[in-house]
Amino acid sequence: MREGTTHHGQLVAADVVAWRQERLAAAGFAGALARALARERRVDLHALIELTERGCPPETAARILAPLDAGPADARDPGRC
Fold it and tell me: CA-to-CA distance for 64 and 58, rounded, in angstroms?
């Protein structure tokens, strides 16, 4: 029974990631960036979308809201908001 619960939990998590990716893509985030951000639970999806709605480029919004422990290798070109 426990395996079934874990499997169901994985299905639900996959559905949430897919939904987040769809929302980000609809807001103008490129495929690879949308996929990466959709999997990152520490990033606020609604804040990302709000920044883009206010004119911030998706790459810059992602950088602004990146977790503080993200290293320099994770940094993207900041652009302008």
Answer: 10
